[in-house]
């Protein structure tokens, strides 16, 4: 059984004391790849160090996280563009909209999001999207509206940490995107028990968002890629299928998103 963690911040300082053992534990749990979303300029060096040390296991993305959009947005985007032009990345991410903490730079968030969506389409890279609602605004709906409006040819990717309704899940699928399912699926009131039984397995990928959103029974503690098996088991339980089926399909779904330059990581 091979699993892929499609979203984990394993360069985070929370792993500084035991990063090697964390990665070893992930390998023991048969996690073949860990996809690393970037946040801002400050996270690039640590992420790239891991990508260089483990080129077949730790795959880097490049993007500006919406929660890091502020008065330095132009400099941050310039750094992202420069990196995309200099290095190979498996996706543009983590990008999107975040209305939860602060609405000061929402206009700049939209501009940064659109810019990065266009870069992804131009470079034929998938995107990893963050959509966190707040202040009576639905980030998923507004992100989906922008994607529909832009209608960029070939744009695809993952709605990371999907926690929406069945209607929103179907809308994401109709737009050509996968749903990133993580620890929230194991939460008692997470809401995905009303969604996942009705969404085809071909539309799902698994993620941890480590070190955040640890699944039950580790909720509230540091998350790590090895815990993705708990997410896979929850999906299996909700869909009344085997965990092996979940692993096989979600891994294939993830691999289908990899750009051509990662063809060496594909089976066969």
Short description:
A divalent metal cation 1 binds at residues 7, 9, 94, 209. 37% of the residues lie in helices and 15% in strands.
Secondary structure elements and their pairing?
Elements: E1 3-5, H1 19-28, E2 31-36, H2 44-53, E3 58-62, H3 73-86, E4 91-98, H4 106-123, E5 127-132, H5 139-150, E6 157-159, H6 166-174, E7 177-181, E8 204-206, H7 228-239, H8 243-257
Parallel strand pairs: 1-2, 2-3, 3-4, 4-5, 5-6, 6-7, 7-8
Helix pairs in contact: 7-8
Description:
The protein has one domain (3-264): TIM Barrel, CATH 3.20.20. The protein has helices spanning 19-28, 44-53, 73-86, 106-123, 139-150, 166-174, 228-239, 243-257; strands at residues 3-5, 31-36, 58-62, 91-98, 127-132, 157-159, 177-181, 204-206. The two termini are 16 Å apart. The chain is α/β, with parallel strands linked by helices and 268 residues long. Helix 7 crosses helix 8 (243-257). The longest helix has 18 residues, at 106-123. It has eight helices and eight strands, in the order E-H-E-H-E-H-E-H-E-H-E-H-E-E-H-H. The protein has an eight-stranded parallel β-sheet with strand order 1-2-3-4-5-6-7-8, sandwiched between helices. The chain is globular. It is 37% helix and 15% strand.
């Amino acid at each position: 059984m091979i699993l892929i963690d499609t979203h984990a911040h394993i360069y985070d300082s929370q792993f500084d004391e035991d990063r090697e053992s964390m990665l070893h534990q992930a390998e023991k749990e048969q996690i073949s790849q860990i996809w690393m979303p970037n946040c801002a300029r400050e996270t690039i060096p640590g992420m790239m160090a891991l990508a260089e040390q483990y080129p077949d296991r730790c795959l880097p993305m490049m993007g500006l996280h919406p929660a890091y959009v502020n008065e330095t947005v132009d400099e941050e985007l310039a750094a992202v563009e420069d990196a995309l032009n200099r290095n190979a990345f498996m996706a543009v991410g983590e990008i999107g909209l975040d209305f939860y903490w602060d609405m000061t730079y929402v206009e700049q968030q939209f501009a940064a999001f659109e810019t990065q969506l266009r870069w992804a389409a131009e470079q034929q890279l998938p995107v990893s999207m963050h959509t966190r609602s707040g202040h009576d605004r639905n980030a998923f709906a507004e992100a989906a509206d922008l994607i529909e409006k832009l209608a960029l040819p070939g744009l695809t990717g993952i709605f990371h940490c999907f926690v929406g309704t069945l209607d929103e899940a179907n809308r994401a699928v109709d737009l050509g995107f996968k749903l990133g399912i993580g620890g929230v699926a194991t939460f008692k009131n997470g809401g995905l028990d009303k969604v996942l039984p009705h969404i085809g397995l071909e539309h799902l990928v698994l993620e941890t968002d480590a070190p955040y959103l640890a699944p039950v029974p580790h909720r509230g503690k540091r998350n790590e890629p090895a815990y993705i098996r708990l997410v896979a088991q929850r999906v299996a339980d909700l869909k009344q299928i085997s965990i092996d089926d979940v692993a096989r399909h979600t891994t294939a779904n993830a691999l289908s998103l990899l750009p051509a330059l990662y063809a060496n990581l594909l089976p066969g």
